[in-house]
């Protein structure tokens, strides 16, 4: 079955980036000149997703505006500025009707946010993208995962190795390798302490989920951090259905973290010829200063 829908949980408060996120959704923070959420939406659309589902919340209307036409702005840019600026504005807006918004009106965690989309998703496999996890890859990670889904016809979670002392920042899997990049998951646990972690393979924010996961999300079991965790629902789903881990090809930036966010900005800026020529000597100068 084709994966047509992608759910984007975007209701989070973004407390780690306060005060920047006091009135701006964290998903609108830019990597160079494009907000994080736009990278995520483009990844989905470039992977063949037809319907974008935003699970949004209070103080997030900037997201809706970002993906909408802005006639005044377009009119103002027309003829005045370079054509590519106008084009970059126009490109942001997906075809009318592609985005559906629903609200998570109580902050009960990632699992609860996904559950809020249950009736929009219906009974079909769907994708989940966490915009905080920005992944630079030749082939979009979601598209890589769709290939794995084709082959295994099971839920797929993106995973990567992390430092053993960092397991308490992630969902961690216990798994058995079945292919070069694919493993069959035996268990999942949300944010275990390093001494309790079954491995150091961490879940990264890309999922393809079978709709049965909603049955378990609906149980509203509170887990790590007092929140309803997607990882816990998948652990329950595992009793009925196969779940595979996919060690994706690409470089992931943790943009929910201040250092990771800066790293992404530097790497994406260095990719742009217009910026690199001035940024590179500056970075070299800073590094020399740091050494002395
Ligand atoms: C969420 C998930 C976690 C996953 C992580 C990836 O955690 O709950 O399982 O490893 O995203 O970024 P959060 O970062 O929202 O605390």
Descriptive overview:
By secondary structure, the protein is of the alpha/beta class. The protein has 2 domains: 252 residues, Alpha-Beta Complex (Spore Coat Polysaccharide Biosynthesis Protein SpsA, Chain A), CATH 3.90.550.10; 36 residues, no CATH class. 34% of the residues lie in helices and 24% in strands. The strands form 3 sheets. A 9-stranded mixed β-sheet has the order 5-4-1-6-11-8-12-10-9. It has a two-stranded antiparallel sheet with strand order 2-3. A hairpin with a 4-residue loop joins strand 9 and strand 10. Bound molecules: 1-O-phosphono-alpha-D-glucopyranose.
* Unreliable sequence segments: none
> What percent of residues adopt helix (DSSP H or I)?
25-40%
Radius of gyration: 20 Å
What is the total tally of β strands? 13
Structural class: alpha/beta
The first-level CATH class of the largest domain is given as Alpha Beta
**What's the overall average pLDDT, rounded?**
94
Bound molecules: 1-O-phosphono-alpha-D-glucopyranose
Strand proportion: 15-25%
Biggest β-sheet description:
9 strands, mixed
Number of domains: 2
- State the CATH topology of the largest domain: Spore Coat Polysaccharide Biosynthesis Protein SpsA, Chain A
Q: Secondary-structure element order, as H and E?
A: EEEHEHHHEHHEEHEEEEHHEEHH
Number of helical elements: 11
Q: What is the spatial order of strands in the main beta sheet?
A: 5-4-1-6-11-8-12-10-9
Question: Which key features would you list for this structure?
Answer:
two-stranded antiparallel sheet, 292 residues, Spore Coat Polysaccharide Biosynthesis Protein SpsA, Chain A, 9-stranded mixed β-sheet, binds 1-O-phosphono-alpha-D-glucopyranose, 13 strands
């Amino acid at each position: 079955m084709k994966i047509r829908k992608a759910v984007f949980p975007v209701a989070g408060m973004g407390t780690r980036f306060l005060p920047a996120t006091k009135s701006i959704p964290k998903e609108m923070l830019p990597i160079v000149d494009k907000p994080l959420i736009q990278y995520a939406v483009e990844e989905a659309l470039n992977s063949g997703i037809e319907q974008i589902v935003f699970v949004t919340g209070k103080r997030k209307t900037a997201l809706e505006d970002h993906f909408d036409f802005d006639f005044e702005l377009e009119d103002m840019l027309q003829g005045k500025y370079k054509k590519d600026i106008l084009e970059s504005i126009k490109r942001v807006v997906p075809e009318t009707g592609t985005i559906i918004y629903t609200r998570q009106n109580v902050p009960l965690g990632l699992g609860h946010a996904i559950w809020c989309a249950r009736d929009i998703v219906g009974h079909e496999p769907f994708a989940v993208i966490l915009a905080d996890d920005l992944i630079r890859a030749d082939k979009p990670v979601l598209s890589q995962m769709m290939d794995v889904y084709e082959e295994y016809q099971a839920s797929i979670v993106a995973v990567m190795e992390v430092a053993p002392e960092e397991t308490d920042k992630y969902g961690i899997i216990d798994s058995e390798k079945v292919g070069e990049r694919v493993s069959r998951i035996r268990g999942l646990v949300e944010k275990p302490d390093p001494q309790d972690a079954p491995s150091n393979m961490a879940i990264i924010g890309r999922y393809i989920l079978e709709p049965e996961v909603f049955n378990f999300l609906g149980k509203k079991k509170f887990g790590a951090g007092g929140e309803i965790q997607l990882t816990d629902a998948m652990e329950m789903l595992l009793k009925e259905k196969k779940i595979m881990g996919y060690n994706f090809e690409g470089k992931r930036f943790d943009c929910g973290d201040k250092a990771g966010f800066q790293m992404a900005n530097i790497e994406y800026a260095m990719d742009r010829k217009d910026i690199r020529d001035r940024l590179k000597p500056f970075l070299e100068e800073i590094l020399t200063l740091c050494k002395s």
